[in-house]
Amino acid sequence: MDIWHIRGGNRLFGSCRVQGSKNASLPVLAASIVFPARSRIRNVPRLRDADAAVSILSHLGCSVGREENELYIDSGLVADADIPRELMAEMRSSVIFMGALLARCGEARLSLPGGCQLGKRPIDLHLSALRAMGAEISEEGSDIFCRAAKLHGAEIDLRFPSVGATENIMLAACAAEGRTTIHGAAREPEIVALQNYLSSLGAHISGAGSGRIVICGASARETTDYTVPSDRIVASTLACACAAAGGRIILSGVNYEHFLTVLHFLNEAGCDIIHFNDIVEISSSGVLRAPGSVITAPYPGFPTDAQPILMAALLRAQGTTQFTETIFENRYRHVSELRRLGADISVDGTQAVLRGVKELRGETLTAPDLRGGAAMVVAGLTARGETRVVDAGHIARGYESFDDRLCALGADVWIEHKGKGTYEDASQPDQPAAFQQARRV
Ligand code: EPZ
User: Fold this and answer.
1) For the segment 130-181, what is each residue's pLDDT rounded down to a tens digit?
2) Residues lining ligand 1, CB < 6 A?
3) By alpha-carbon position, which residue is closest to atom 1 of ligand 1?
4) How far is the CA of 222 from the CAs of 76, 95, 160, 202, 237, in angstroms?
5) Backbone phi and psi for residue 218, each to the nearest 5 degrees, phi listed first
6) What distance in angstroms lies between residue 121's CA and the mean position of ligand 1's atoms?
7) To which H or E segment does residue 353 belong?
8) In this predicted model, what pLDDT tens digit does every residue of 307-323 receive, in sequence order?
């Protein structure tokens, strides 16, 4: 079990290159099995969820090697269409292997995915879309069995722009006969990243980033060299940390457009923001004012993943901030913990009202999930005394060397690793026999 220790009060100064995106990497790793190919994938963050995806790929028969942030995947052989329950439970993105396996093997046997407990998180949109493309799917308890002798193109209308459902449809459609059109598709940058990866392997796919994506099969290629874009939620977290603690930081390797909505609220709260090419500079006096009303929405709206983190940054802002969470039913689990620091927040259904307080006092908090854990770290940076965050292993699922990065910016934080289960314990990369061959992409 990891325990974060944060001694608040230090301002943040310096520059930081933002890691590759977790939520872009994971679908790309699942997509690597759609065609028999060798992929060199750069800028993959070293995270537990990425390791979980690698374990699934290895289990399926792929050869996977890693050097720092590069993965080499040889998916020439996919020997199994079955993903064991313990691997499915590791993370939410395991569900994306459903579309990938259907495309590659014509069948998939898996179970409901794990991931953060943010609400019901059904997969009905995934299943109905794959059925519309010709898949026969049966569910027994938490087990799911999918089979398709031949997938065919379809016109699919998503009633909600689900990120995961859009990804699953894109993957399955690569092997479908005819044209698949997704109406009401998710528009997140991670969808564009997936399109770029699939296109680099010969998929005929267009429209990602808009609400209408068209996929017309593929003329598969054997190799690709692909770079994962930077993580907009990590960039948002670092920006919020600087806003709350005060200081001036430079984030490099980022796409400003991808976290514009978060920067907008930090600007309204009193921060100065400058951007140039792939660099964003944030300056803050540490004294913020409430920026008004924050409503989460699918991209390009304000991201639900940044809601806990912006809330943490605004705990001492003068005035009242109103939050409305429209994506997940259960995404205020960080609130009761933040209150223990002295924060004044009330929650009523989808609404949370935050009244800024003069001072926060360090306390021992429990991280409820990945972004909730990151929010506690941000809050701890501005609290008097020491804040401890227990169950903080969640944070390592999404943030690479986050403690080192914050320390390099001047924060006083450290992680106590208790027993097994730390990222370093779990992350010794496999170097299978075919590794050298897989590397020669
Ligand atoms: C992705 O989850 C992200 N995860 C989440 O990030 C992110 O919060 C979410 O998109 C929204 O942006 C990954 O990319 C791995 P959805 P996903 O399907 O795909 C409902 C993080 O912290 N829905 O867009 O699971 C669902 O219940 C994580 O990095 C259905 O009703 O999100 C939810 O209310 C947490 N039926 C809404 O749509 C379905 O079949 C959004 O879900 C599918 C979804």
Assistant:
1) 999 999 999 888 899 999 989 999 999 999 999 999 999 999 999 999 999 9
2) 23, 26, 92-93, 116, 119-126, 160, 162-165, 190, 304-305, 327-328, 370-371, 398
3) 163
4) 9, 25, 35, 9, 37
5) -160, 155
6) 7
7) strand 351-355
8) 999 999 999 999 999 99
